[in-house]
Write a structure and sequence with these properties.
about 80 residues; mainly alpha; two-stranded antiparallel ribbon; 4 helices; about 65% helix
């Protein structure tokens, strides 16, 4: 995250605690969790496969903060 404010918001609102690593998620781990959830959810409920190419493209854009998903989805 580019600024300390963005880092604080991520850590305080969206990063889950990892008990194995004894720390909160990094931004990359939060983004990975988000896409893992949606890949599984869409496959199970809609029989829809996002495909690795689309997921990777969206993931890179999220990591670069060019696009943002529903923040509610990141929290849950």
């Amino acid at each position: 995250m580019p600024t300390q404010y963005q880092q604080f918001i991520h850590l305080s609102r969206y990063a889950r605690w990892d008990y194995d690593k004894k720390r909160r998620e990094t931004w990359g781990e939060t983004v990975d969790r988000y896409f893992t959830f949606f890949q599984e959810h869409l496959k199970e409920t809609c029989d829809y496969d996002l495909g690795n190419g689309l997921v990777e493209e969206l993931r890179e854009e999220m990591l670069a903060l060019n696009v943002m998903p529903s923040m509610r989805c990141l929290m849950t």
